[in-house]
Amino acid sequence: MRKIFLWMIILTALTAVAACLNTPNQQGGNTPNAAKNAGGKVRIGFSMDTLKEERWQRDKQLIEKRAAELGAELSVTVADGNDDRQNKQVEDLLTKGIDVLIIAPHNAQVAAASVASAKKQGVPVISYDRLVKSDDLDLYVSHQVTKIGEMQAKYALDHAPKGNYIMVYGSSTDNNALLLKDAQLATLKPAIDRGDVKIVAEQFAAEWKAEEALKIVENALTQHRNEVVAVVASNDGTAGGAIQALKGQNLIGKVVVTGQDAELIALQRIAQGEQTMTVYKPIQPLAYGAVDAAIKLAKKESVATTDKIKSVNKEIPSLLFEPKVIDKSNLSDVINDGYHTADEIYKNIPANQRPK
Ligand code: GAL
């Protein structure tokens, strides 16, 4: 009898110790985090909207590379522009068990549900490149988006100070598109007020699609008898659509066209004089910054930030990287950075006409 009693005491004590060991992982009453300690690896979920633009393919590769370097386990999902799919994919990641979520949302509002789900399970969340409109975020990692909008509009003003402008914004579901639009319009305002610049057409290009931009610019050119001096396109994809429309009217090289992303095809167009500028956003610091921060958040360590960005009502600690204007005069900056090679960029330029 005494023996049984002794065993009961030992068993109770062991159960209590086991419960204590599990406690730190059982945030929010759920258990998916338990495996982190079992394998010793931090498990990161990366929920992406799309791989359509070249830059996102690079983001994916670099996030994979950094996670592997640091011995983290990474699961990547891609929603292909579908809001329900993105929320469902995040649910699946959470069910499978992740210690931290990085999300590049398709829709700033809809993705707030994913952030809420993660937080309910005690999983910290980083909004990546695009802000999710949620005050539950732990961190926002991006480039200085407002500055990009200012750079695009300022470049256009410097190179086409007077005349009719077409504004091609990005996808209205993407917070970046809204920030760019606001920054572009604020930068153009004094010139508009002076009567130097007139915006003759302005529209969001659904899903940042080149075809949408093509239609917007084609219609505006027809309506204004080709009297246009600049197309402020928010990224290189939409710049491509705009350039196709300008080609149709023999306006190539006569109209300033802005962009963003330093996509190879855009840099080739810049080299050929078809596109005027792009904004280069080095992806490596962004991707590595996000993975490094994710691991810290998963381990409940603090992350050094550079800024604060307001989401809904709350300021979210943010890590914002510097963008850079690229035009024909400094294509070498992108080359020296190893982002694209000179051979790739000058592919369509005869060897004797390439810069030395
Ligand atoms: C933006 C992003 C850009 C561009 C665009 C289309 O949010 O900042 O770099 O890729 O989406 O995906």
How would you explain this protein's 3D organization?
- The protein is an alpha/beta fold.
- The protein starts with a helix and ends in an 11-residue tail after the last helix.
- About 9% of the residues have low confidence.
- The chain binds beta-D-galactopyranose.
- Beta-D-galactopyranose binds next to loops.
Give the topology, please:
Blueprint: H1 2-22, H2 34-39, E1 43-48, H3 54-69, E2 73-78, H4 83-96, E3 100-103, H5 112-120, E4 125-128, E5 139-143, H6 145-159, E6 163-169, H7 175-194, E7 197-204, H8 210-223, E8 230-233, H9 236-248, E9 256-257, H10 264-271, E10 277-280, H11 283-298, E11 307-310, E12 315-321, E13 324-327, H12 331-336, H13 342-345
